[in-house]
Amino acid sequence: MLMKLLLSGIFASSAIIAQPVFILSLQDSSFFTAEINNQVFNEPQSVMNFYDVPSGNHSLKVFKILKTGNSTIKQPVFEGTVLIDQNSSLVGYIDKYNQLKISSNTARLDKKETAIYNQTRYPNPNNIPTNTQNQTNKDGMSNTQFNSVLENLNAISLENERFNTAKGIISISSIKSSQIAEMMLKFENENNRVQLADYALKYVVDPQNYGVVYNAIRSPRSIRRLNRKLSN
């Protein structure tokens, strides 16, 4: 097989790359299955993350899952091509007119950064790279200092208070995009995750890697809402 496609929830942690090359959903957040280059993914999902797809045009078919009584129907909603670049993380969705729309196209981590992140001692289940810096400097916050930040947030029981504390810390810190994504995981309220990502963009030291924050978002609706905020 010319390529290996890895979907969220079914890959080995040793194979995880820091960011997917293609994130796909339906506009109405319905469950769907997909085929890319005739490789079939039959497990219905509301969001699919594709990894290790070579650069170039790829054939794509998308099927919406419909329930009729005790029957499950796969309704074709898209058949066409998608242009993928291994250097970018592409966020797309199928709109109500059954067209593929690209809502975000951001730079991925380079191979050197990816290798560093994949060697971290504690793999993150959300595919968010963990900070590996020994010292705090203009390139980001040290691992020790950032762990203290997370412990501080963990100690705050009220989510609104935790959110305001996180904003205050971000505004006076040298902080990485991946660290913002980790901080977002400290909030159960999806709206707080989106608001924090929107707020933090102007403070991070590596805005070129900001696509990683999408890994801390759970629903396709929120992904699109965050993309609109970051695009303004």
Short description:
This protein is α+β, with helices and mostly antiparallel strands and 232 residues long. It has helices at residues 111-118, 143-154, 159-171, 177-184, 190-200, 220-231; strands at residues 22-26, 32-36, 39-45, 47-50, 56-68, 71-84, 88-94, 100-107. Helix content is 28%, strand content 27%.
Query: What is the helix fraction of residues, given as a range?
Result: 25-40%
Strand and helix order: EEEEEEEEHHHHHH
How would you sum up the global shape? Answer: globular
How many angstroms separate the termini?
Answer: 41 Å
Sheet with the most strands, sense and barrel status:
4 strands, mixed
Please tell me about this protein's structure.
With 232 residues, the chain is of the alpha+beta class. It is built from six helices and eight strands. Helix 3 packs parallel to helix 5 and helix 5 runs parallel beside helix 6. The protein is globular and about 50 Å long.
Which helices and strands, and how do they pair?
Blueprint: E1 22-26, E2 32-36, E3 39-45, E4 47-50, E5 56-68, E6 71-84, E7 88-94, E8 100-107, H1 111-118, H2 143-154, H3 159-171, H4 177-184, H5 190-200, H6 220-231
Parallel strand pairs: 1-7
Antiparallel strand pairs: 1-4, 2-3, 2-5, 5-6, 7-8
Helix pairs in contact: 3-5, 5-6
Which descriptors would you attach to this protein?
four-stranded mixed β-sheet, 232 residues, 28% helix, four-stranded antiparallel β-sheet, alpha+beta
